[in-house]
Amino acid sequence: MRDPSHRKRNMARARVLYAKGRSTSEIARTLHLSRNTIYAYKRDDKAAGIDWDDLRDEALERSPVAPLHAIDERIAWLASFEAETREPGTGWWGDQIAKLAKARQTLEARLGDLGNALDGLEVFERWCRARCPDDEMPIMLRNVRACIADLRSGTFEPST
């Protein structure tokens, strides 16, 4: 039997990947687990009051690039389904893939680098939490959070 901490670590990693918009199949492949194991983790967390779908929804609300990831996932799903059912690039599936790709391009152009900047700052915030001395932490986190809030609201002014 595996170490319980190994299961908890895998469950936490699966939860984070799911919240980031990854499918259960992708999570299973990434963690080298079965899809049934991922579904069991999701079910066990829900019984403990942690709803993965709510976590995903919250992450989507916070991240401006999340819709891009969702569109990428749908394009990949449609492409794989088309490959299984019809000749690639023909018929209804090809039209849907083309429409989604165009929507993704438009959205990506609107977002620009904002999403990447926010993602980078959130990674930096986690890095600070793990490495900054306790007396510097409140100042560092306050500044990172203020920068994130300004970026989200569109009021960010870079210092010169």
Q: Could you walk me through the main structural features you see in this protein, from its secondary elements to its overall organization?
A:
- The protein is mostly helical.
- It folds into three domains: 4-60; 64-111; 114-153.
- The chain is built from eight helices and no strands.
- Helix 1 crosses helix 2 (24-31) and helix 5 (66-85) packs antiparallel against helix 6 (91-111).
Q: Sketch the topology as an H/E string, one letter per element.
A: HHHHHHHH
The general outline is flat
Rg, alpha carbons: 19 Å
Flag low-confidence runs: none
Overall number of domains: 3
- State which percent range the strand residues make up: under 5%
> Helical percent range?
over 70%
| Major pleated sheet | none
The mean pLDDT is 78
| SS-derived structural category | mainly alpha
Output the number of helix runs: 8
What's the number of extended β-strand segments?
Answer: 0
Distance between the termini: 58 Å
What is the gist of this entry?
By secondary structure, the chain is an all-alpha fold. It contains eight helices and no strands.
Task: Please name the defining characteristics of this protein.
single chain; 160 residues; mainly alpha; 8 helices
Secondary-structure blueprint:
Blueprint: H1 4-19, H2 24-31, H3 35-47, H4 52-62, H5 66-85, H6 91-111, H7 114-131, H8 137-153
